[in-house]
Specification:
Distance between the termini: 33 Å
CATH architecture: 2-Layer Sandwich
Strand order of the largest sheet: 1-2-6-3
Order of helices and strands: HEHEHEEEE
CATH class: Alpha Beta
Oligomer: single chain
Number of domains: 1
Largest sheet: 4 strands, antiparallel
Strand content: 35-45%
CATH topology: Alpha-Beta Plaits
Structural class: alpha+beta
Length: 94
């Protein structure tokens, strides 16, 4: 898998914003991406040193459309912990 296909988008939620204070950042990643691929993609894209990668598969949500129930597709989330002294300026406010 190519490095540009691994990281889909950064997650900017209330919980992810609180994690920034601990030098941890959340990303939506490709469902077939491994921890090693995620580590390499973040290190190359943002030129930082990654200390740890936690990965979890988020289940799809069930929603109703009239009488039908539809489940959205599942997706994968990665929380990346950076080495002390490293920051990703992409997430910093202006």
């Amino acid at each position: 898998m190519h490095l540009y296909e691994v990281l889909r988008r950064p997650l900017i939620t209330e919980k992810a914003t609180l994690l920034k204070e601990e030098d941890r950042y959340a990303f939506e990643v490709a469902t077939r991406a491994t921890k090693g691929q995620i580590r390499e993609a973040v290190e190359r894209a943002f030129k930082v040193e990654v200390r740890k990668v936690n990965v979890m598969t988020m289940p799809g949500k069930t929603r109703r459309y009239g009488r039908r129930q539809v489940t959205s597709s599942r997706w994968k989330k990665a929380i990346v912990t950076l080495a002390p002294g490293h920051k990703i300026t992409f997430f910093e406010g202006v």
